[in-house]
Amino acid sequence: MNTIVPLISSGVAGPLGVLHLPRLWLKASLEARGKLAAGYPGAGKGYDQMVIDALGLQRDAVLAFIKEKRPTYPQFETWIKQQPGVKLDKATVEKLNSSIRGYIHDDDTRKSVLGANGLPDDANAPKDAVNLDNLDDWKEFHEAVLK
Questions:
Q1: Helix axes 73-81, 59-69, angle to 10 degrees
Q2: Please, are residues 71 and 65 in contact by the beta-carbon 8 Å criterion?
Q3: Which residue of 78, 91, 95, 100 has the fewest CB atoms within a 10 Å radius of its CB?
Q4: Where in the chain are the domains?
């Protein structure tokens, strides 16, 4: 069976304006169908859990909805808006998005990602997790599909 590297960046938001939410939907959807590339969690403890917690969602409910209903991304956002206690106000979304944009990987992770991509760890190197994760995804995709 072919598996898929999730190429939607954590820096992408859907119509609700929530960064990483499209990536969470994609990863959980792929995992629910047994199509998520090895090494990627369907819903991990990093950005995935940050989004779930910040929006006031229940992790098990999110994953069950995706697994059972196979929603399109807009259907997923519609479901989110219907959840009791969901927090989609501007301040909550801006605080979450700022946390995502501002998250910095530890030095070892940064060095590992840059090294695997043949990039120097210098003043021009990305430090933020979104860009480092993008580099990691693109490398994984290249190795799995294009090499």
A1: 140
A2: yes
A3: 91
A4: 1-87, 104-147
Per-residue CA distances from 20 to 27, 45, 56, 81 (Å) = 11, 13, 15, 16
**pLDDT, one tens digit for every residue, the chain (147 residues):** 699 999 999 999 999 999 999 999 999 999 999 999 999 999 999 999 999 999 999 999 999 999 999 999 999 999 999 999 999 999 999 999 999 999 999 999 999 999 999 999 999 999 999 999 999 999 999 999 998
- The DSSP line for 30-72 is HHHTT-BPTT--SS-SSHHHHHHHHTT--HHHHHHHHHHH---
8 A C-beta contact, residue 96 and residue 54 = yes
Q: State how far the Cα of 104 lies from the Cα of 128, in Å rounded to an integer.
A: 5
| 0.90 exceeded by pTM | yes
d(CA 146, CA 143) in angstroms, rounded, equals: 6
Q: Which residue has the tokens 């399109």?
A: 72
